[in-house]
């Protein structure tokens, strides 16, 4: 399997966003390492621009991602 390129630069995957250890590990596994298309950060960065991704947007924040879309489309 090809390595997903955002892993090197994403602040969430690089542990630069505050989150407890268990949740961080779980999210990295289910979003970053299994299905990036379900990640709120990935959705915003792929449909809009990377600078539209708030620093405090976590992978599970689908409702917030939808709100960002509605504000920018
Ligand atoms: S899946 Fe989401 S949190 Fe994980 S590296 Fe990609 S953009 Fe970052």
Give the averaged pLDDT, no decimals.
Answer: 92
Number of strands: 0
Shape: globular
What Rg is obtained from the alpha carbons, in whole angstroms? 12 Å
State which percent range the strand residues make up: under 5%
Return the structural class: mainly alpha
Sequence of secondary-structure elements:
HHH
Largest sheet: none
Q: How far from one another are the termini?
A: 34 Å
Give the bound compounds. Answer: iron/sulfur cluster
Query: What is the tally of helical segments?
Result: 3
**Helix content class:** 40-55%
In the predicted model, the low-confidence regions spanning at least 5 consecutive residues are none
Task: Describe the protein.
With 73 residues, this protein is mainly alpha-helical. 42% of the residues lie in helices and 0% in strands. It contains 3 helices and no strands. It has helices at 21-32, 40-47, 62-72. Helix 2 (40-47) runs parallel beside helix 3 (62-72). The relative contact order is 0.16. The model has no long low-confidence stretch (mean pLDDT 92). The site of iron/sulfur cluster has 12 residues, from helix 1 and helix 2.
């Amino acid at each position: 399997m090809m390595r997903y390129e955002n892993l090197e630069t994403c602040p969430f995957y690089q542990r630069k966003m505050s989150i407890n250890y268990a949740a961080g590990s779980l999210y990295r596994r289910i979003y970053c390492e299994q299905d990036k298309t379900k990640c709120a950060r990935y959705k915003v960065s792929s449909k809009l621009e990377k600078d539209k991704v708030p620093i405090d947007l976590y992978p599970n924040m689908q409702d917030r991602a939808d709100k960002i879309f509605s504000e920018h489309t």
